[in-house]
Design a protein that fits this description.
This protein has about 110 residues and is mainly beta. The protein is about 0% helix and about 50% strand. It is built from no helices and eleven strands.
Length: about 110
């Protein structure tokens, strides 16, 4: 079992920045593919960014150039740096870990509004 605990969400004005963190409980964190997804009411959960154990990253087109995913294997933590935030980035953001199966965090709310 893997426990994922997200933090760093909140309310920010358009154009602002936030950094999300996700701390994982399992020592095989370094072997896991880590990702951030987001979901708004009435829509399916969508991939925002993902990082492999080797550091390879992929991003949704809507966040490319604005968001950066990174990981610190020594701290079992993955980050999502979000810059130039837009109102359409408002969602609940979920941390995901994949190593044989998916594990999910509880989600953290990000609201972009003036």
């Amino acid at each position: 079992q893997v426990q994922l605990v997200e933090s760093g969400g909140g309310l920010v004005q358009p154009g602002g920045s936030l950094r999300l963190s996700c701390a994982a409980s399992r020592s095989i964190f370094s072997l896991s593919i880590m990702g951030w997804y987001r979901q708004v009411p009435g829509k399916e959960r969508e991939l925002v960014a993902r990082i492999t154990s080797g550091g390879r990253t992929i991003y949704a087109d809507s966040v490319t150039g604005r968001f950066t995913i990174s990981r610190d294997n020594a701290k079992n933590t993955v980050y999502l740096q979000m810059n130039s935030l837009k109102p359409e980035d408002t969602a609940v953001y979920y941390c995901n870990s994949y190593y044989g199966r998916d594990f999910w965090g509880q989600g953290t709310q990000v609201t972009v509004s003036s």
